[in-house]
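Q: what sequence does this backbone want?
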């Protein structure tokens, strides 16, 4: 009787990578590496934004220079 067995559509995704072996593993590893690099960049950006927010709370003007805003001194 056709179609009487359980349908394993949800497992086909896992099976795809299992059957393709090394090539799929390399592709997934490359994607994981790219994601980790992006996460590291975002962590750095978040730290910069937190520092910028602290300065803004102290009353320093916001500047998009990537460096902390310096206070002006009278000569």
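A:
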């Amino acid at each position: 009787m056709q179609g009487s067995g359980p349908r394993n559509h949800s497992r086909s995704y896992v099976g795809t990578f299992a059957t393709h072996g090394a090539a799929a593993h390399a592709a997934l590893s490359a994607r994981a590496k790219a994601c980790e690099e992006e996460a590291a960049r975002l962590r750095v950006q978040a730290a910069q934004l937190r520092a910028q927010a602290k300065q803004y709370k102290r009353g320093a003007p916001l500047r998009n220079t990537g460096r902390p805003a310096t206070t002006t001194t009278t000569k």
